[in-house]
Specification:
single chain; elongated; mainly alpha; 87 residues; 86% helix
Length: 87
């Protein structure tokens, strides 16, 4: 009976350790990301990083490459044609 208890305790401890080093780390990363979204400081930080990226885009001569420009132009033309077809 004593051996069974020891084996069970060892198995439980091993499972807890394996869980913490595998799934537990992933859950902690997800919690950190969501915490950034839901805190006031996190949102302010996101807004400031978006502003910085927008400044970088403004300072670049060509933000989009040729293919991206072509695709966006086709998309806008399609939307215009659909809007013009409405009575």
């Amino acid at each position: 009976m004593r051996n069974y208890i020891y084996k069970t305790l060892i198995a439980v401890v091993a499972l807890i350790i394996v869980f913490e080093f595998t799934i537990g780390k992933t859950i902690n990363k997800i919690n950190q990301k969501t915490e950034i979204l839901f805190t006031k400081e996190g949102r302010k930080e996101m807004v400031s990083s978006i502003k910085i990226e927008m400044e970088k885009a403004i300072n670049q001569e060509n933000y989009l490459d040729e293919e991206e420009r072509r695709i966006i132009k086709q998309f806008i033309q399609k939307i215009k044609s659909e809007l013009n077809s409405v009575e």
